[in-house]
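agent> fetching stored inputs for the guanine docking request
agent> found them:
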Amino acid sequence: MVLLDGKKTANDIKDEITISVNEMIDLGEKVPHLAAVLVGSDGASLTYVGSKVRACERVGFNSTLIELPETTSEEKLLKVIQDLNGNNDIDGFIVQLPLPKHIDEQKVLNAVNPAKDVDGFHPENFGRMALEMESFIPATPYGILQLLERYQVITKGKHTVVIGRSHIVGRPMSILMSQKGPAGNSTVTLTHSHTKNLSEITKQADIIIVALGVPEFLKASMVKDGVVIVDVGISRVPDDTKPRGYTIKGDVAFDEVSKKSSFITPVPGGVGPMTIAMLLKNTLIARKRNT
Ligand code: GUN
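agent> prediction call returned; pasting tokens
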């Protein structure tokens, strides 16, 4: 079994980005600038946004964090987005999801200038991605492709089963894995809550990508020997023995499934760090495209 080490791979990618930033500085160019908008004070979102800002510092980017109260109106948030769209100093920005219930998430994502949409969530970028045109690939799927590619996992002609059809991970992943390209050319089955006999399908999978948010959902009895496992889940499970009162669990019962796997991502330290590295990569790309 080989561990798909997202922490190490993300650090490699961040080192590559740092080299590009230093080249920009040597040429007297402006360094990339990422902004993040956070509405409310959800604990997990605060942690993720904090990690994104720290990652910017690590590679030499400028970063701006815009924190808005939970009660922020949709109108006010749309105004903040318009300001970021028009601010030439900002190369790319993200609106951390989920948003409070009184705000229409899709309306907000539609308001982001596609050229600054480093999350790749705008319909224009999603459509362009699906058509294999120049776009921003959402950071988590992009990170998974990079992990598979850098570990030389063979995907061509393999059967990939994606569990979960979210707009952020499952759906784009199912499209990308079927496309031409280094971590593509695979035959994809996209499964979801209405899928019948899920175990029968997962047992036929060469590669399983689980993005459900249900701790330890995928068990050893559901996979065949030699399977490649990508675990996108990051759930906080109450645990009194931990100083923070919770422990982080993935969607895969790691101890039992890893014994049958050829490659597997750990949680934490798998897909999570890759997401942040690829957000930085997209911001670098945005900086270069917008010059
Ligand atoms: N919430 C969970 N994942 C993501 C992500 O990749 N980007 C943003 N903006 N919000 C998220």
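agent> quick read of the result: The pocket of guanine is lined by residues 94-97, 119, 139-140, 168, 275 (CB under 6 Å).
agent> awaiting further instructions
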